[in-house]
Hints:
Keywords: Cell membrane, Ion transport, Membrane, Transmembrane, Transmembrane helix, Transport, Zinc, Zinc transport. The chain is mainly α. The chain has helices at 3-28, 32-40, 42-52, 56-77, 82-104, 111-116, 124-153, 155-160, 165-181, 184-187, 192-206, 210-235, 239-254.
Amino acid sequence: MEDFIFRALLAAIGISIIAGSLGCFVIWRRMSYFSESISHSALLGVSLGLVSGLDIHIGLIVVGVLFATLIVALQQKDFLSNDAILGIFSHIALSLGIVVLALVGGTNTDYFSLLFGDILSISNQDIIWIYTILILVGILLSIFWQRLLLLTLNEELGVASGLNRFAYQLLFMLMIALTVSVSVQIVGVLLITSLLIIPPAVARVFAGSPVQMVFLSIVVSIVAVVIGLNSSIYYDVATGPAIVIALGVLFGLSQLFTNKTLA
């Protein structure tokens, strides 16, 4: 196996584990629009990384965390509805990212790969970033699983039990921001949300418990990225869209087995 293909496969599996597990909470909490808003800020993060001379991943994390914090803070004020806040941030972030990137990006900047991913350009340093985030998210989920699940499935009971809704909401959104920061090269800025919502949507059809849903979501995500990666190499098409198409096919097939209503 060629080195670049092995790195791409390793990166895809790591991202699948992260996105597959956190994506279940996105589905349960009906937060797909939030993940899309954070993903749109990724272009601004890339611009920050280029301007500062730091690693692009640093810029992605800084901008993602900043936007997630601002969104959570504004949601606590109850001044605007959640969808209005997310819509405002989504479009502002995407527009700022495009403008700043146009100003600081050189002729060698591959805009297509930023928008739709270029998994075959994954480096060893990218692998380290992905699995560092995987370990961090895994530790946080293992520690706070019961509390996050309680606030997700029954927020009133969780608050009555003494849990700080704001703190755990911020924690979850920061994990989403970290996930987005390492997913840009896999499927690109415009397609990141698909990795977070389609695998859990497929898994929900067959799962009988939250833990089963997380496990099946990870499996579905890994299967889709492997199929998409192979299709990309074989047919010489963009990897990100190929992965999303594979996810779409799996979602369509899953609907043949049940009449459950998805959230």
